[in-house]
Amino acid sequence: MTAGALARRGFGDGARSVRLMAESGLDPGSHAVIVDALSAAPDPDLALLGLTRLVERSTEAEEIRTALVEDAELRSRLISVLGASTALTDHLARHPGDWRELLGADAARLPGTEELRTGLLHTVGADPNSPAPTADLSDGEPADVAHALRLAYRRRVLRLAGRDLTGLQSLDEVAAELADLASATLEGALAIARAQFPDDAARCRIAVIGMGKCGGRELNYVSDVDVVFVAEPLDDTVDTEAALRSGSRLAAAMMRIPGETDAEGTLWEVDPALRPEGKNGPLVRPLSGHLAYYERWAKTWEFQALLKARPIAGDPELGAAYVQAISPLVWQAAGRKNFVEDVQAMRRRVEAHIPRAEADRQLKLGPGGLRDIEFAVQLLQLVHGRTDETLRSGGTLVALDALSHGGYVGRDDAAEMADAYRFLRRVEHLLQLYRLRRTHLLPDPKTASGQDELRRLGRSLGFGVNPVADLTATWRRRAGQVRTLHEKLFYRPLLKAVARLPGEEARLSTAQAGARLEALGFTDPRGALRHLESLTAGVTRRAAILRTLLPVMLGWFADAPNPDAGLLGFRQVSEALGTTPWYLRLLRDDVRVAERMAWLLGTSRYVTDLLLRAPESVAVLADDSDLRQRRNVELIVEADAALRRHDTAENQVAAVRALRRRELLRTAAADLLGVTGVDGVGDALTAISAVTIDAALRAATERVAHQRGEEPCTRLCVIGMGRFGGNELTYASDADVMYVHAPLPGADTAAATETAGAIVRELTRLLELPAAEPPVRLDAALRPEGKNGPMVRTLDSYAAYYQRWSASWESQALLRAIPIAGDAELGERFTALIDPIRYPKDGISVKTLLEIRRLKARMESERLPRGADPTLHTKLGRGGLSDVEWVAQLIQLRHAHEIPELRTTGTIRVLDVAVERGLLDVDDAATLEVAWRLASRVRGAIMLVRNKGGDLIPADLRERTAVAAALGYGSEDEAEGPGERLLEEYRRATRRARAVMERVFYDS
């Protein structure tokens, strides 16, 4: 085969490859399968050079070539090893006969843990069945026996690499076998140490506790083996101090053997730095010493390290006793103060110490690296493992699977993280396998050698055409995925909330729940317990997530005014949504949603009712931006789409009313959560009501036209009045309206009026039709002649009426009139018509002023409910909404004709302009505004809490306390409680407002 042909098959130096093939006795014809295998190796040149060295050093060269031709499995394993690892190639060059380690059925079989231990103990001449295996040094020096142990270890690694590189073992199996092999090696090294120091071995029992990756059975090819030593006297005749000195000598001797360098090189370092007090602490402690330290002095990171603790060598009973004693401390560590914050801070410190030049190539420590996965998994384990024993595993992948199965991590997130972990560990293994050196750093692609190494890695991972680019792109993608998931899981607020729970409360039990519920303030603990049992029963994923979440949520329900109603509402919403995946993810991954749900459901029957009508609306609680008022244009576009989407007027308006219901929920939630204020509530409620009425008017018009077989002969406009016109709607407000129409040219006025009336009747029917959505109640009582007057008038009829019959109260009512739906041009004409009436050119006469004052006094005496406390009625009471609004409206009637800025429908805007123009003292205006805003908020809160309107502050203490809580009065505000605090502030604000009103309105 020519040099060019070899180059085309992936060999870097074709001429050199031809020479090496000749030197190794390979004939491209008779050995074609070998050449094919070499060209498919991770590094064909490296594999060919290694094979040449092997056959040159071996006395079995021809046997090797024949076996490679005849045995496809041997050929695949041996050439994969030669093409991926210069260190194992060096081993084969030193020990040519070890090629047989890759031959036959044994080479493809996964060895068991005990097989590895037994094999390496036999290597040092120790009895595997002895309680304290001791090496046989009769035929050699300790160094010779240690060399034999290291050589046996290398042979096992060679055999493992053959299986690993040819896909016979999964990453999980490879890592576990490496950990078991390290444990067996330490067992052999300890046997040598016992033989070296027989007196010490006779004084103590010693156990080696594996930590880190060895403890978790997820070791790398080359990694420090983290250990902790525990020793006890062999019997009562031995002094403890003497036993510990002996244990220290045995431990030190054992540690030296894997770390020494000879012809086989260094295997790995044994690192005891994770012991109590670290490098400053004694190497060996008794079990009681370990316990005393961890109970009193241990830091958060030490419990995180102990999560993977596992006996790996030495006295098995002592090792088991250590783990049994330490485990309860580990799984209660999350209850320590600032535990979660400490773990998070430690991860940030690790990341901060990475050299900047290496950060984007660090497989282990860098952003998106292995540590991101491991820290996230360990933190979740430690927090939730307090009560869920299925999470108590030292292995990252096993733990991740348990977290997913238990609902603590989403299935997709867990699968994505597990795939990324396996990829990163696979790359790490291949990097280390090359020279059998500890490294976690990807080669630098800016160098030629780095490009060569990346090419070898890429080919090892199965990337074909462009292995360097494909490997780099996959690494970037995986790192990005890991970083995103790490931040999502590692900084999840639920972790802190669960960690702060007392240990006994982290998971509910039937026996404890009743007392806890009563202590939290549930008035019906048995009923609450039934709700909890219903939510958490069974083995479903939903139940698992709720079992984790509800202990935390109980505290949030308890903070709400009505915990029982909150829990019931939560159960109803959760059952309505069932196993909806996004709902469960939302609760688990964004704890703020669960906290907000608990508060809203335990505070507001109004919100609960809206949520139960459409439980999927809970999604808006995830982000403050979703709670803010939507732009009018967005609402109009959505309403238009609803009209186009449905065929019948009933379905069209039902869809628009559903839009309104979503906006009502959005507004109420934003109000109760402090995202918006009273002005925002008025704006949002007015806007969605106007959009709903306008869309319903179009549907009604189309329905009447269809029924009559012709287009309406008139144009119709809806005029907003009262709080609707003032952009100050509340949750309980009806929509005060008037209707004006204008017949089309040539149309009969009577027929046009009858058609307009039919449209209004249809509009009212559609908006108040019994349905799942809240109705929109239209109130036309402010029309000319009130309830006795016609529902619909022409523009000319309004003009005639106002010119001849208009009363002073009607001029005052028109101050808030504004077109809100229907024909815009007609609305402008109506506004032009009423402006001279509501903004009289010469102001108002003394007679009109007296009439207005008498009307105000009569309203207070006649319309205030019998027996009602006038200081607590938010609308008609002293210093309430009516007082402030009538002051503002009187200012408008007197001065709006000369001050255009007063021609507004909003109360607070009138007060502001009055101050700017010197019509009202600034302090008086501030006093009126404070009272108006407070009364508006209280009125809204009453509706939110009770889900029915009411103008009186509740007399019932529990209900008043709930209203106060909805307004943000905390239980810690005053000793007398939030309800009394609300009363005090309300009475003070309205008393001051009443004094201003009497002085300004009555000139007193």
UniProtKB/TrEMBL annotation:
<feature type="domain" description="PII-uridylyltransferase/Glutamine-synthetase adenylyltransferase">
    <location>
        <begin position="344"/>
        <end position="490"/>
    </location>
</feature>
<dbReference type="InterPro" id="IPR005190">
    <property type="entry name" value="GlnE_rpt_dom"/>
</dbReference>
<dbReference type="GO" id="GO:0005524">
    <property type="term" value="F:ATP binding"/>
</dbReference>
<dbReference type="InterPro" id="IPR013546">
    <property type="entry name" value="PII_UdlTrfase/GS_AdlTrfase"/>
</dbReference>
<dbReference type="GO" id="GO:0005829">
    <property type="term" value="C:cytosol"/>
</dbReference>
<dbReference type="GO" id="GO:0000287">
    <property type="term" value="F:magnesium ion binding"/>
</dbReference>
<dbReference type="GO" id="GO:0047388">
    <property type="term" value="F:[glutamine synthetase]-adenylyl-L-tyrosine phosphorylase activity"/>
</dbReference>
<dbReference type="InterPro" id="IPR023057">
    <property type="entry name" value="GlnE"/>
</dbReference>
<dbReference type="InterPro" id="IPR043519">
    <property type="entry name" value="NT_sf"/>
</dbReference>
<feature type="domain" description="Glutamate-ammonia ligase adenylyltransferase repeated">
    <location>
        <begin position="596"/>
        <end position="831"/>
    </location>
</feature>
<feature type="domain" description="PII-uridylyltransferase/Glutamine-synthetase adenylyltransferase">
    <location>
        <begin position="872"/>
        <end position="1001"/>
    </location>
</feature>
<protein>
    <recommendedName>
        <fullName>Bifunctional glutamine synthetase adenylyltransferase/adenylyl-removing enzyme</fullName>
        <ecNumber>2.7.7.89</ecNumber>
        <ecNumber>2.7.7.42</ecNumber>
    </recommendedName>
</protein>
<keyword id="KW-0460">Magnesium</keyword>
<keyword id="KW-0548">Nucleotidyltransferase</keyword>
<feature type="region of interest" description="Adenylyl transferase">
    <location>
        <begin position="502"/>
        <end position="1004"/>
    </location>
</feature>
<dbReference type="Pfam" id="PF03710">
    <property type="entry name" value="GlnE"/>
</dbReference>
<dbReference type="Pfam" id="PF08335">
    <property type="entry name" value="GlnD_UR_UTase"/>
</dbReference>
<keyword id="KW-0067">ATP-binding</keyword>
<comment type="similarity">
    <text>Belongs to the GlnE family.</text>
</comment>
<dbReference type="GO" id="GO:0008882">
    <property type="term" value="F:[glutamate-ammonia-ligase] adenylyltransferase activity"/>
</dbReference>
<keyword id="KW-0808">Transferase</keyword>
<keyword id="KW-0547">Nucleotide-binding</keyword>
<keyword id="KW-0511">Multifunctional enzyme</keyword>
<feature type="region of interest" description="Adenylyl removase">
    <location>
        <begin position="1"/>
        <end position="494"/>
    </location>
</feature>
<dbReference type="GO" id="GO:0000820">
    <property type="term" value="P:regulation of glutamine family amino acid metabolic process"/>
</dbReference>
<feature type="domain" description="Glutamate-ammonia ligase adenylyltransferase repeated">
    <location>
        <begin position="77"/>
        <end position="321"/>
    </location>
</feature>
<comment type="function">
    <text>Involved in the regulation of glutamine synthetase GlnA, a key enzyme in the process to assimilate ammonia. When cellular nitrogen levels are high, the C-terminal adenylyl transferase (AT) inactivates GlnA by covalent transfer of an adenylyl group from ATP to specific tyrosine residue of GlnA, thus reducing its activity. Conversely, when nitrogen levels are low, the N-terminal adenylyl removase (AR) activates GlnA by removing the adenylyl group by phosphorolysis, increasing its activity.</text>
</comment>
